[in-house]
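Hi all, posting the design record for the shared folder.

TITLE: backbone redesign
STEP: 1 of 1
STRUCTURE INPUT:
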């Protein structure tokens, strides 16, 4: 993976002198401190991302969801050529900002807190300030995992992807996991897998827009085809349904 990455235990690793703790449950009980950075992805996720980043020659990355800063910081450490813009609805986290400053990442990591993933005007301002009119190479959505908000983000950001860029949505299958997601708290919420279905229909309807869709247990990745502008892009208007409506599960 990287010669400076050292696995300490199944839920802990270090990059040089920076320690990361992997959390898979009770997320909000943990905070990044000066001694360790909380991360929600284990190393296997980054092995997949490393392949994408190298194969597609990714230079800039937009990440939706900062949480305690773990994945944003690790992306920057593992791939020292990446220019990263990360967006989150949360308020600024001083511990995360301190680590970015300590590691000398301020010139490549741009954090936009207090920004909702479905706020088109705010996201456009953020990306314009970092990339100007240049297309982006890759999006990783690890934010709300809610259907409407995640879909809105796709409609905002997919048109900004370059030709052969990739848009990755994490945890698309939460509605089909055993445990808490099968209870009444979540039962009436539209599944994020609806968006995965829509992306497969977009692939069938518009091969000029999508080259392929890669669905894995944890991620669905849409690979863009073509570089033509997509003003006022609406997903529901881009795929064909023979006049029918898509029922949400």
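Okay, here is what came back for every position:
SEQUENCE:
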């Amino acid at each position: 993976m990287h010669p400076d990455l050292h696995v300490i235990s199944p839920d802990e690793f270090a990059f040089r002198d920076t320690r990361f703790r992997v959390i898979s449950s009770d997320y909000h009980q943990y905070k990044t401190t000066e001694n360790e950075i909380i991360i929600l992805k284990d190393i296997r996720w980054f092995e997949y991302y490393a392949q994408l980043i190298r194969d597609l020659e990714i230079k800039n990355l937009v990440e939706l969801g900062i949480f305690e800063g773990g994945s944003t910081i690790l992306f920057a450490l593992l791939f020292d050529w990446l220019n990263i813009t990360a967006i989150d609805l949360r308020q600024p986290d001083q511990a995360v900002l301190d680590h970015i400053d300590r590691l000398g990442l301020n010139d490549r990591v741009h954090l936009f807190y207090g920004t909702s993933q479905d706020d088109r005007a705010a996201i456009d301002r953020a990306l314009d300030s970092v990339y100007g009119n240049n297309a982006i190479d890759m999006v990783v959505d690890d934010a709300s995992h809610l259907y409407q908000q995640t879909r809105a983000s796709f409609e905002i950001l997919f048109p900004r992807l370059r030709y052969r860029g990739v848009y990755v949505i994490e945890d698309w299958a939460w509605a089909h996991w055993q445990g808490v997601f099968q209870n009444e708290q979540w039962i009436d919420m539209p599944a994020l897998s609806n968006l995965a279905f829509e992306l497969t229909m977009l692939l069938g309807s518009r091969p000029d827009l999508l080259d392929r869709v890669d669905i894995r247990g944890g991620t669905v990745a849409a690979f863009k085809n073509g570089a033509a502008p997509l003003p006022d892009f609406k997903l529901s208007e881009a795929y064909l349904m023979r006049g029918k409506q898509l029922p949400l599960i």
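COMMENT: The radius of gyration is 18 Å.
Let me know if anyone wants the other runs.
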